[in-house]
């Protein structure tokens, strides 16, 4: 899709208030009818759009469960379960029962703050990561039981985020140790191990990697870092599609000079627009630049929205719906819903 | 790693010596730790850079001092001000590691939720007021 000729602007649709502290993370449910947000106020809020007024309101507050900051949340692919990761070292699993959310399970095991949680494409596996440097893989069993099937050691520091590949059961993690690690199961032994590390020697980041996101096809990945750059990586899609298992990832390009403070979040939309949220309170959009260069695709800055929030932006998440809706979460305690629309 | 835009003529608001009294881990008499700070504020951009010099190269309290400074500064400046804290270059053996921790806001937030650490920070700040 070529965005270069479109005059686009980021329109603020609504500002969601309610949290009493930093909002760290956001997650749209699979149908994008619900938005979950989690905060330093130890709660998770579920926001829903009213069909009559088209405006968003808080449908539920998930509280009195986590005893510290809730750092990350993720919906299962079916949309029936919500996992929430907390600094209290636990991961809670919530189920929508009727009109209420109930905590149906609590996953314990990490030694300290859990930073991120992610479901695989089929919803059969859950991954969590922590400041304890480990990544845990849990198998989802009947009756909302979760069994830890692997504790992955390898990162030498705090692990900031885990993300399953959108198609394959391959797990990606990024860390304060400046690397991205890729974990896959050994075909025969069901043992999970690190199959690749993307570090400085592979043109990797030179400071904490805060987030990663895949393009819809799953053959490209974007990472963002405290080193003020955003990097694009790719893999051999033929090998991947042939189901031959894991194929190595390599650095494709680095976007530098666009951000002057830490980039906390990057999210790739279905149409190929990369949104970033940074500590300079701005949201930026990058797209592939089809300038016909022989050396392959480059990415360019399509739009920048300064002062999108009053404070650092911790998370940007595209809705999976038709319209180009984006949600952003900030240290200022608010969430904003935006629409990337043609200038009228 | 973050301050390309501090203006060319920074206004130095304060350069002072601070004595933080803490009890060392063995419960002996209060250990006094000296540090000197310099603060640079860019009001237009809403950014603050504070550098402090722990007087001992291997000061194990460096991260705690940094935390104390962050908590203290929060009370003096509007919430949207961005604060970067560093040990002054060459003043600490683990300079990079200390700076990285002090400027990782997720680590700072988690540290301040730790009751033991929070108590230590509160005690340092309280004793400072005296």
- C-alpha-based Rg of chain B, rounded: 14 Å
Number of helices of chain B: 4
Query: Main sheet of chain A, how many strands, which sense, barrel?
Result: 4 strands, antiparallel
Number of strands of chain B: 4
Query: Which architecture of chain A per CATH?
Result: 7 Propeller
Strand content of chain A: over 45%
Q: Please give the largest β-sheet of chain B.
A: 4 strands, mixed
Indicate how many domains the architecture of chain A comprises.
Answer: 1
Task: Note the run of SSEs of chain B as H and E.
Answer: EEEHEHHH
Q: In CATH, what is the class of chain A? A: Mainly Beta
First-last Cα distance of chain A: 21 Å
Q: Give the fraction of residues assigned to helices of chain B.
A: 25-40%
Write down the CATH topology of chain A: Methylamine Dehydrogenase, Chain H
Instruction: Give the strand line-up of the largest sheet of chain B.
Output: 1-2-3-4
Helix content of chain A: under 10%
Q: What is the strand arrangement across the widest sheet of chain A?
A: 1-28-27-26
Shape of chain A: globular
């Amino acid at each position: 899709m070529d965005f270069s000729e479109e005059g686009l602007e980021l329109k603020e649709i609504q500002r969601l208030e309610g949290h009493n502290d930093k909002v760290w993370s956001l997650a749209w449910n699979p149908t994008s009818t619900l938005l979950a947000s989690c905060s330093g106020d130890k709660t998770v809020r579920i926001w829903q759009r009213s069909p009559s007024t088209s405006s968003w309101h808080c449908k539920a507050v998930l509280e009195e469960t986590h005893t510290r900051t809730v750092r990350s949340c993720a919906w299962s692919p079916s949309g029936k379960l919500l996992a929430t990761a907390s600094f209290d070292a636990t991961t809670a699993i919530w189920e929508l029962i009727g009109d209420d959310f109930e905590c149906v399970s609590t996953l314990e095991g990490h030694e300290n703050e859990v930073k991120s949680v992610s479901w695989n494409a089929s919803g059969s596996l859950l991954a969590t990561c922590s400041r304890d440097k480990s990544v845990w893989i849990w198998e989802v069993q009947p009756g909302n039981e979760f069994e830890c099937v692997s504790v992955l050691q390898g990162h030498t520091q705090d692990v900031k985020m885990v993300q399953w590949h959108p198609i394959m059961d391959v797990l990606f993690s990024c860390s304060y140790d400046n690397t991205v690690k890729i974990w896959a199961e050994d075909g025969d032994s069901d043992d999970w191990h690190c199959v690749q590390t993307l570090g400085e020697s592979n043109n990797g980041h030179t400071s904490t990697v805060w987030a990663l996101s895949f393009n819809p096809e799953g053959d490209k990945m974007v990472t963002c870092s405290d080193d003020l750059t955003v990097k694009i990586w790719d893999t051999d899609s033929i090998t991947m599609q042939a189901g031959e298992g894991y194929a190595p990832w390599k650095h494709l390009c680095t976007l530098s000079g666009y951000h002057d403070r830490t980039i906390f979040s990057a999210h790739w939309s279905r149409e190929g627009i990369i949104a970033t949220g940074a500590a300079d309170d701005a949201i930026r959009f990058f797209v592939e630049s089809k300038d016909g260069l022989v050396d392959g695709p480059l990415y360019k800055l399509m739009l920048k929205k300064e002062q999108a929030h009053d404070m650092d932006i911790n998370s940007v998440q595209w809705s999976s719906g038709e319209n180009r809706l984006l949600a952003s979460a900030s240290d200022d305690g608010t969430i904003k819903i935006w629409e990337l629309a043609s200038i009228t | 790693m973050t301050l390309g835009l501090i203006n060319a003529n920074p206004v130095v608001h304060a350069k002072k010596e601070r004595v933080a009294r803490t009890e060392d881990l063995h419960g002996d008499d209060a250990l006094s730790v000296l540090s000197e700070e310099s603060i640079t504020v860019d009001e237009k951009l809403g950014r603050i850079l504070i550098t402090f010099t722990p007087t001992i190269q291997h000061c194990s309290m460096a991260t705690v001092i940094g935390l104390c400074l962050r908590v203290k500064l929060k009370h003096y400046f509007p919430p949207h001000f961005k604060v970067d804290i560093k040990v002054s270059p060459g003043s600490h053996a683990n300079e990079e590691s200390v700076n990285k921790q002090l400027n990782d806001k997720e680590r700072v937030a988690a540290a301040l939720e730790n009751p033991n650490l929070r108590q230590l920070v509160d005690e340092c700040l309280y004793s400072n007021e005296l």
